[in-house]
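User: Quick one: structure for sequence A, then sequence B.

Assistant: Sequence A:
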Amino acid sequence: MSQYRTFSARDAVAYAQQFGGLDNPSELVDAQEVGDGNLNLVFKIFDTQGVSRIIVKQALPYVRCVGESWPLTLDRARLEAQTLVEHYQHSPQHTVKIHHFDPELAVMVMEDLSDHKIWRGELINNVSYPQAAAQLGEYLAQVLFHTSDFYLHPHAKKAQVAQFINPEMCEITEDLFFNDPYQVHERNNYPAALETEVAALRDDAQLKLAVAALKHRFFSHAEALLHGDIHSGSIFVADGRLKAIDAEFGYFGPIGFDIGTAIGNLLLNYCGLPGHLGIRDAASAREQRLADIQTLWTTFAERFQALASEKTRDAALAQPGYASAFLKKVWTDAIGFCGTELIRRSVGLSHVADIDTIKDEEMRHACLRHAITLGKALIVIAERIDNVDELIARVRQYS
């Protein structure tokens, strides 16, 4: 029989005392539930001085933002913990550290990042972290290279693919990214004023054909152990530091999906900035987002290429020129997946604060239209966007 029970704040404190790894665990005396996501309970555990020292996270057996009518596997907690542990091995400076995990309770104890801030909120508030885009590119290069066929022995790779099979969470991605926005569905969530634009998505055969190809790649290309949901809300930043969290969607999939999701969220911020800032500040911040995208991709591609040149173990994949050719494919995939992220965050179930918190309704609708238009264009013309400079030019064209 399962030992699972939903934690209270008192439970979280007791668990942190037992598994937090502190020299004096009795210092931990209080907890506050701070989870603002769609899936989990997250407790900050405080010491006698009121300082947050440890995080306790527990998966719920349903989608939190919907309720018990949408049940969800607790095994996602195991997959999240193991994904973060694996990623930490390859990029400890940019991955949250997991201290302990219990699969029966679907609970993990992890390092406290209270001295960091969520990157999405900082982007909305136009707070600059000059190294963040390069650090994200470095994180993605390290974790995606070291879990790919370039680095892993084929036997080890196949074993890891089996270990990280994540069908229920992948199904959520498959529905929210590639199905729901392109049909009438009760999960879709958009203002009535955008019905014309959304109906056009459903009626666009060329677009839906391109989305089908992207979904097929998501199904079938087990290229590396993805984070699976690497957006600006699952990244903590501080001066000179960046940490990835929340990897419950981790699985082996196409590398371009993680890259495209990351770029897509920077573009969602780009689309929403006029609703948060004055004209001049918004224009300047938008240029910074484009620079961030360029830095992110350039850092990722250069570091992946360098790692491939130095560490590729497979004789065929070590052939000069192959890693470069592979990255071109990753880039094309990333542009398409980026477009699906823009559309699903505008039309589908789960939106982003970059646009949803815009107070002026007319401006909010305009920003949503921009995201939909840009996302649609990127999906359709992905194969014609050869490099990051061309992407930036296209973004400006649709602004």
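Sequence B:
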Amino acid sequence: MRVLVLIVFLGVIVSLGSALVYLMRDRGNSNRMAYALTWRVGLSVALFLFVLLAHYLGWIESTGVPLA
């Protein structure tokens, strides 16, 4: 479970980095940055929904760590 979440999170980071590279390199002349940011949003939403589903199915449990 941790490995899967880590892989998807790293995918989000890589997509964000590639969007930055496309921003600097293309200077708004192509849609590659928009596609990279679309992938980032899609991966983030999928990761969030997966964590919610895993919690609902009992694959992961909350730790009950206090916020303070």
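Residues 32-57 form the longest helix (26 residues). The two ends are 27 Å apart (CA to CA).

User: Thanks, that's what I needed.
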